[in-house]
Amino acid sequence: MILRRVTKHVKDQNWFAVALDFFIVVIGVFIGLQVSNWNDARAIRMSESDFLGRLHSDIVELQERRAFYDTGRPLDMELHVIITEFLMRERDDLSEADKLNVRDFPGIEKVSGLSAAFICNTIDWTAALTVPPAVLPTATELVSSGRVNDIASANIRAALQSFLQQTDRANDLIVAIEKSSTHLSSRFPDLFEIRNKNWEYDFDTGSPPDDYWCDYEAMRQDRPFLNAFALNVSKYSSYTTRGIMPVSEKLRALHHAVDLELEITHTFEQEATP
Ligand SMILES: [Zn+2]
Questions:
Q1: Is 36 a domain residue?
Q2: For residue 193, is it within any domain?
Q3: Gap from CA of 236 to ligand 1 centroid (Å)
Q4: 126-166: per-residue pLDDT in tens?
Q5: pTM for the whole thing?
Q6: How far is the CA of 264 from the centre of ligand 1 (A)?
Q7: 3-class DSSP state of 151
Q8: Rounded CA gap, 234 and 57, in Å?
Q9: Which domain holds residue 233?
Q10: To the nearest whole percent, how much of the chain has pLDDT over 70?
Q11: How many separate domains does the chain show?
Q12: In a domain, 222, yes or no
């Protein structure tokens, strides 16, 4: 219809009307494109906030699962120092271990206090370097589809990349350390007595130890054992401080960036024990 009108105006040499028609067409196309752009932008914003909401849930869940490592592993390190001093005859007993915040030990809520079995189990498990959970399904989905750059917030993008890189590095490190640690009860079977309690292992909260018994006096006199234990303790320290804590710190930073974007605030208690 507009073409017929333009043709008529050209025939009539009504150049003002031709210019007006042209202007109307241009404005019409412009408005059409703008509306389409606004709709696209709105759709992207909606899928972004949907994505960030899912990412936030993943982060909170992962932090809950990692809490078992974040609190338990540093406590293990403190306990290792006390046990080392005891085995090196620098202290007479292990009573100092009871001063640790024992309630934070994984699985301890299922037993009473730091029993001898718990201490002995801790010695043996200096070689048990499990890789903590570190997967955020929403992030994995984004990475596998090559859409990380679709995240509008540069802060979240950077925090996510940083977390993913740290996780890769940490996992490689843990696997390398684990290979070089000595499983003490297998290597020094005369120093341990173990009876299985058939606990149901809970991956997220740990399990109490089986019935363990250690011959401390024989351990104190066994130089190869003391060397292997010392090396395990040193590796456990690397595992905790370089394999676990940096990933948890990056996860906290990512959580903070997502909270800022979604304007979520948590109470202090929730942040302390995410
Ligand atoms: Zn949050």
A1: no
A2: yes
A3: 30
A4: 999 999 999 999 999 988 988 888 888 999 999 999 999 99
A5: 0.76
A6: 6
A7: coil
A8: 35
A9: 53-272
A10: 80
A11: 1
A12: yes
Measured in Å, residue 273 CA sits from the centre of ligand 1 at 12
- pLDDT tens figures, 170-228: 999 999 999 999 999 999 999 999 887 766 666 665 666 667 899 999 999 999 999 99
Compute, in angstroms, the gap from residue 158 CA to the centroid of ligand 1: 17
- Report the separation in Å between the CA atom of 145 and the middle of ligand 1, taken as the mean of its atom positions: 25
Q: Which residue from 31, 2, 32 is spatially nearest to 18, judged by alpha carbons? A: 2
Residue that has been written with the tokens 């909260």 in this structure: 205
Q: How many Å lie between the centroid of ligand 1 and the Cα of residue 76?
A: 28
How confident is the model over 256-270, as a mean pLDDT?
Answer: 83
Cβ neighbourhood burial of 130 (10 Å; 0-12, 13-18, 19+): exposed
Give the distance (Å) from ligand 1 centre to CA of residue 237: 29
Q: Higher pLDDT residue, 6 or 40?
A: 6
- The answer as to whether 153 is a domain residue is yes
Give me ligand 1 centre to Cα 266, in Å: 6
What is the 56 CA–ligand 1 centroid distance (Å)?
6
| 264 DSSP 8-state letter | -
